[in-house]
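batch job 7 of whatever, protein = Asparagine synthetase domain-containing protein
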Amino acid sequence: MRWLVGWSSTAAGTPMTGSAGATGFDGETVHPVGSQLLWGDPDPLWAVGDWRPDEVRVVQADEQTRIAVLGICGASDEQLRVGLFAARGGALRHLTAWPGSYTAVVQVGRRVTVCGDLAGARPVFHTPWAGGTAYATAALPLADLIEANLDFGHLAALLAAPDVPDALHDSTPYDGVRRIPPGHALILRAGAREIAGYEPVASLAVAAPAADPAGAVDAVRDSLVEAVRVRLAAPRHVPDVDPGPVPGMGPAERRAARGMPAPGLGADLSGGPASGTLALLAAGLPGAPGTLLGHGTGAGERLLAVTFNDLATSGREAELERAGTLAANPRLHHVVVTGGEEVLPYADLDGPLTDEPGPSLIMAVRHRARLASGSADHFTGYGARQVLDAHPARLADLLMDRKRRHLVRPVAALAKADGSVLVPARVYGAARKLARTPYRAGVESLADRLMQRRFEEPGGAVGASLAALTWARPGPAARWLTGEALAEVSIRLQTVTGRPSVGPGQRPGDYRARAALARHAADLRVLEQAAEIRSQRLHAPFLDNQVVRACRALPEALRVQPGARAAILRTVLEGAGVTDLPTGWGAPSHATSAAAARTGLRVAADSLLTLFDTPLLAQAGLVEARVVRKALRAAADGEPLPLDGLADLVSLELWLRRLLSRRGTCWTGTPARQRAVPAGITPQRGALGTGATARRA
């Protein structure tokens, strides 16, 4: 893991022990373990972890005016300096408008500004500490700093309503540690904190100009090409030196067996449009992909393209064939990674502790098997579906804008998939109802559903679309929670009146799409930490700020059309000079991860039942062990239960066990530091209800 952590004190003259650390309660001196100091007192900032030299940049105008950028940023030092002077006057948005994926921290006198990203892949956390405010890009270091206990209400909301921002609000799994919403910045003035949004707010007085579809797609192309190019321009990195040959193994197999990525650049090549677009862009743009400084020929080396072939399940033959056709490009070097039952979901439940829980924990071994054959800098197509596709609730947005004719094609596609002539009327009726439902009423309806334990939803593609045509809906794991946990989440939702998260003019479809993107980005962050390969960096250009902005400007009428994502990415490739795509490229895949998840659940049923013999989730009062064990047995026997919900339960149980079994802390100093959740989990009898009562009061 890599993060930055800093501190803002309340008094300018507070001694902070120079470059060593910060003074906390009782005069103790603490500093992060394994850190490098970027600047010192009175508001110090550290970079912690295995940052590369080119990933940490500090530009300073004077002793009290400086900017630190951590990550991949396409701005030159002069651009950073200009941005620093503009930020001194209070402008923030331009700090997030450079290509790449990074976190920017600006210090102007006693004012410190930390900018989060739009997707939520690079979040910012904060907590009160020693009369001031500590902040970081990871929650666990702050939890260690204040010796935080678990926030059981947040864990309940994470299971009951993970896609509803108002259920989670700004909380984290650690009590007292708060999260900055995507698209916001944390501003500290001598320890006092303020959270400010840096994106423009839609006006209710002036209608937004009609978006030009061709111009919007061109903007997506330009931003995506620039996102890939800035990574091509970054210095190449060579992992640790290969210690020598192994009989019967080639160099690539040897590196993978030792957990070492190949040098240079690589990309996923699954056969889908997102990964294929990035692989072809990275291989075709000027920049000699794969070339190492001082190594290879002047013409550059081929881009390493990695395809995963699951031998335990079937149904992706067409995608694999398209991946092979794309890999025939002479600029690509194709590697196919095969995996059987040993890399199915739930196959290996051991792994590192991540900053937060996420459903990707059950898939970590599967992704690690693929990434171990990848490159030191590896492109992935994560986020493309969330930023380009249309959430079903966007149909209500079209009705609100009086664009009914644009509903014809998506509704016809659903009717064709279902085979029923009643589909158009059902979908139109649900979209019309959502368009007329206020946000507050939608959240109250969810709170009522949780209290009454109503989780029935229609099946199939049409059923999923109808269920998504709401402001808020229960999570797939909600049906297995205790009544007390559901009541806690219901009460959290009823506090929305005082702090509505829906801004003026925001539509239900746009709101649901942003929430889905934030959840996906948070889970990708968990995946990066759980499947991390030493000396490797995963790059997700679709989650860069400028790409997200360009995708949000796409007209809704274009988004909702069947095959819109593939058509947009085809246009992106054509603009970059790539026109020879295989037949069927961009076709939706009928094989999903559900088959692999069900197979993995059946194979690992015994170990999962053992995991839930005495689960920590039951000690916390969130579930009953016998209920979860019964659901696991039923799912392993093939009953149609929501597999996503079981993945949420298993991953959260795994995360709790890893958190409580860890040794050490993120901080060092005198006296000896404690760590997060110092007392462990004690049986919770009425604890959730007590917290809910206190919140009402």
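notes: The chain has a mean pLDDT of 86.
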